[in-house]
């Protein structure tokens, strides 16, 4: 448990974040003192950068300065005005319905309590708490991803979901901090204690913080000092449909990650089926290797740097039509983005999968004779017992069958290294969760997405992370720092 007093820490942080940008919802609250604008800005701000929310809110409030103005706008117009906030289509639907619900159930007044607020379209508990705290200055604890994450990093709570965190904080956080905790920790979470690679090196409370669950970043912090100049950041993510994840804020997630290379698997699309936005993300060139069959498999890699060459597939007729491997060559390394086949129910595709694995291994070994090789992607196998929640029940299932794990043993025994396990030996660190049974919330998952490097390149690895707070797919992204 945390060894320092919460009043002391929050006092230090309040001073610290006074110089940071004010979270957008607070800013709108202070500037307008208008519950309508706070409510709408809060709805817009979910899964959206403050900068984007601010621009969208300004455009919207110009045409809809009040509830009556909002009622005059069509859903189509709303969609245009609030683009590109995350989930803009859904949010436009909610905003279009909002005036009607407020008129019929609340006499055109914005409720000032959490429960009635949650009856409004697009308003969950987090949004409701934020509106109550910011617009009405009433005691409420708004627990968003930053509050939930940081409170757990400190060990002040030990919870699995934001709702559990809210309930735990209601029990133990002194009431005088309820109103301010969200804006303090959102600003701190955006500026210093970031979800990806927090700046522990410059953190004003580092001497108190137990840094629970951020071990890889501590290691990264040590090595970064000497490697800073040449360090690159790579991300791999099975998006389970690029068109689907675009609607869930992909462009913004990519901007936040700010990685040098981003490898995507299971894009389930051919380039001509994708939006211009997705194909032309500023700062990146995208390389596509789609399956011939529409809506199936496929990989893509976004790169900031122009590669020396691009290799599509592994020159094998049995595999390449499925769009599974895309390799970018740079001066001092190859970057292989791979989507391994699923062995499928009844292990019907096991033979094909093992053949693919061996052919890819041969391909990677050949490249590794020339220069470093980074191979990432959805390997569709959990290697060891600690890599999935229920190993016993899954011994004969695809993804944990003995044949697949034996191949992984062989792959890792003959020259490649699972970089995540270089730093972290903990169980419960997963990258994929079923959409069923609330598996992600309960962390019932599998670690099947990897960054591996050839043995001689392990010294070039500076950090690894599983970015499990990034949503949008049934997989989460994984990260590698490489110099
Ligand atoms: S030391 Fe690191 S993990 Fe702890 S609060 Fe500061 S930035 Fe966050």
Describe this structure in words.
- With 483 residues, the chain is α+β, with helices and mostly antiparallel strands.
- The protein has two domains: 6-191, Hypothetical protein, domain 2 (Endonuclease III, domain 1, Orthogonal Bundle); 230-482, Endonuclease/exonuclease/phosphatase (Deoxyribonuclease I, Chain A), CATH 3.60.10.10.
- It contains 20 helices and 14 strands.
- Helix 1 (6-17) packs across helix 12, helix 3 packs antiparallel against helix 9 (125-136) and helix 18 runs parallel beside helix 19 (402-413).
- The two termini are 36 Å apart.
- Residues 153, 192-193, 198-200, 203, 205-206, 209, 211, 214 line the site of iron/sulfur cluster.
**Major pleated sheet:** 6 strands, mixed
Bound molecule types? iron/sulfur cluster
User: If classified by CATH, what would the architecture of the largest domain be?
Assistant: 4-Layer Sandwich
Count of the domains: 2
CATH class of the largest domain: Alpha Beta
Q: How would you state the average pLDDT, rounded? A: 90
Level of helix content? Answer: 40-55%
- The number of strands is 14
CATH topology of the largest domain: the name is Deoxyribonuclease I, Chain A
Instruction: Bin the strand percentage.
Output: 5-15%
State the separation between the terminal residues, measured CA to CA.
36 Å
Tally the helices: what do you get? 20
Coarse shape? globular
Q: So what's the oligomer here?
A: single chain
CATH fourth-tier homologous superfamily of the largest domain:
Endonuclease/exonuclease/phosphatase
Rg computed from alpha carbons, rounded to a whole number of angstroms: 24 Å
The unreliable regions are: 216-227
Structural class: alpha+beta
């Amino acid at each position: 448990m945390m060894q320092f007093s919460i009043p002391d820490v929050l006092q230090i942080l309040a001073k610290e974040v006074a110089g940071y940008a004010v979270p957008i919802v607070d800013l709108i609250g202070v500037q307008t003192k208008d519950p309508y604008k706070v409510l709408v800005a809060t709805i817009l701000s979910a899964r959206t950068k403050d900068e984007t929310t601010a621009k969208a809110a300004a455009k919207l409030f110009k045409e809809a300065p009040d509830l009556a103005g909002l009622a005059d706008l069509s859903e189509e117009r709303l969609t245009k005005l609030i683009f590109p906030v995350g989930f803009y289509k859904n949010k436009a639907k909610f905003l279009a319905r909002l005036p009607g619900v407020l008129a019929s159930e609340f006499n055109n007044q914005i409720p000032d309590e959490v429960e009635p607020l949650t009856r409004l379209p697009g308003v969950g508990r987090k949004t409701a708490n934020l509106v109550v705290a910011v617009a009405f200055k009433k005691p409420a604890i708004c627990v968003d991803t930053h509050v939930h994450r940081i409170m757990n990093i400190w060990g002040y709570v030990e919870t699995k979901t934001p709702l559990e965190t809210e309930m735990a904080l209601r029990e133990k956080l002194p009431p005088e901090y309820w109103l301010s905790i969200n804006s303090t920790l959102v600003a701190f979470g955006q500026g210093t204690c970031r979800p990806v690679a927090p700046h522990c090196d410059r953190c004003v409370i580092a001497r108190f913080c137990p840094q629970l669950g951020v071990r890889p970043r501590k290691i990264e912090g040590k090595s970064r000092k000497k490697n800073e100049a040449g360090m690159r950041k790579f991300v791999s993510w099975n998006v389970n449909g690029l068109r689907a994840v675009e609607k869930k804020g992909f462009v913004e997630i990519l901007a936040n990650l700010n990685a040098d290379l981003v490898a995507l698997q299971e894009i389930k699309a051919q380039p001509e089926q994708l939006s211009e936005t997705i194909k032309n993300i500023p700062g990146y060139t995208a390389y596509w290797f789609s399956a011939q069959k529409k809506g199936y498999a496929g990989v893509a890699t976004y790169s900031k740097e122009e590669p020396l060459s691009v290799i599509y597939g592994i020159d094998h007729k049995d595999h390449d039509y499925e769009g599974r491997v895309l390799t970018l060559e740079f001066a001092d390394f190859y970057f292989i983005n791979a989507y391994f086949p699923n062995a499928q129910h009844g292990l019907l595709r096991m033979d094909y999968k093992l053949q693919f694995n061996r052919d890819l291994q041969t391909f990677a070994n050949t490249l590794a004779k020339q220069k470093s090789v980074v191979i990432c992607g959805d390997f569709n196998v959990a290697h060891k017992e600690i890599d999935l929640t229920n190993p016993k029940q899954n011994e004969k299932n695809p993804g944990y069958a003995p044949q697949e794990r034996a191949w992984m043993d062989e792959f890792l025994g003959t020259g490649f290294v699972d970089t995540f396990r270089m730093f972290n030996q903990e169980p419960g660190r997963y990258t994929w969760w079923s959409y069923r049974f609330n598996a992600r919330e309960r962390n019932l998952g599998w670690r099947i997405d990897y960054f591996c490097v050839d043995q001689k390149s392990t010294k070039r690895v500076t950090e690894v992370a599983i970015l499990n707070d990034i949503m949008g797919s049934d997989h989460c992204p994984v990260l590698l720092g490489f110099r």
